[in-house]
């Protein structure tokens, strides 16, 4: 086998059956599988961070909603409108966090199903595209999370490069971008539905232009 192959995946001191060599050449062993597992754990850590942020935003949402209702019941339109405006921004942020969490969850599920090097190349392509979109969306909300996702994306790029050199597989960028968009669209759709279920409507009479998300 080529030197770069044996250096990456390791070689046995005794001769192996041909079938074993073929099997080992397609499984993500050696340095790449642990690297992929580390990336998954880091992504799971970011999901936990987003959950914590979502919980804090939910508490703020409830508090602001109560203030809107109270101000409106007292016919204090200026304060009702001000609180409604702030609530609108909180809910926009909540939807962003919810969307990012759902997309990361889909990424983790996909990465955990990788069993062959060829799968690794084709799976990581769209994953990296999704990570870039999520990073851009949440950097303004959670700068540390944005930086962490950027680092994870760089690490995954390295894994793709190594896997491609080992297998000869190349990334189909058109298909990769299409798959990435599917993941993002699905996450956005689910986030929108969950937001409708989660967020109570503001009192009738609150300016509609202030409550759109």
Describe the protein in words.
This protein is 78% helix and 0% strand. Residues 1-29 and 208-213 have low confidence and may be disordered. It is elongated and about 70 Å long. It contains 7 helices and no strands. The relative contact order is 0.15. It has helices at residues 3-9, 18-26, 32-73, 77-112, 117-138, 143-167, 173-198. It has one domain.
Features:
disordered C terminus, mainly alpha, disordered N terminus, 7 helices, single chain
Number of domains: 1
Outline: elongated
What does the radius of gyration come to? 23 Å
Helix content: over 70%
Which segments are poorly predicted (pLDDT under 50) over 5 or more consecutive residues? 1-29, 208-213
How many E strands?
0
Mean pLDDT: 78
Sketch the major β-sheet.
none
How are the SSEs ordered, and which strands pair?
Elements: H1 3-9, H2 18-26, H3 32-73, H4 77-112, H5 117-138, H6 143-167, H7 173-198
Helix pairs in contact: 3-4, 3-6, 4-5, 4-7, 5-6, 5-7
Give a brief outline of the structure.
Helix content is 78%, strand content 0%.
């Amino acid at each position: 086998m080529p030197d770069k192959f044996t250096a990456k995946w390791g070689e046995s001191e005794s001769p192996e059956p041909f079938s074993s060599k073929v099997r080992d050449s397609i499984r993500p062993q050696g340095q790449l599988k642990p690297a992929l597992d580390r990336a998954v754990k880091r992504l799971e850590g970011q999901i936990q961070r987003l959950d914590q942020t979502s919980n804090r935003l939910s508490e703020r949402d409830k508090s602001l909603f109560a203030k809107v209702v109270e101000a409106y019941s007292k016919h204090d339109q200026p304060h009702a409108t001000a609180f409604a405006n702030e609530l609108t921004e909180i809910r926009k942020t909540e939807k962003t966090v919810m969307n990012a969490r759902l997309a990361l969850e889909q990424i983790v599920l996909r990465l955990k199903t990788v069993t062959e090097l060829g799968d690794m190349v084709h799976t990581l392509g769209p994953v990296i595209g999704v990570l870039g979109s999520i990073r851009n969306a949440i950097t303004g909300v959670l700068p540390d999370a944005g930086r962490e996702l950027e680092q994870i994306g760089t690490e995954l790029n390295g894994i793709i490069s190594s896997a491609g050199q080992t297998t000869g597989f190349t990334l189909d960028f058109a298909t990769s971008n299409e798959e990435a968009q599917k993941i993002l669209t699905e996450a956005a759709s689910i986030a929108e539905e969950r937001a409708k279920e989660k967020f109570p409507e503001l009192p009738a009479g609150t300016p509609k232009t202030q409550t759109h998300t």
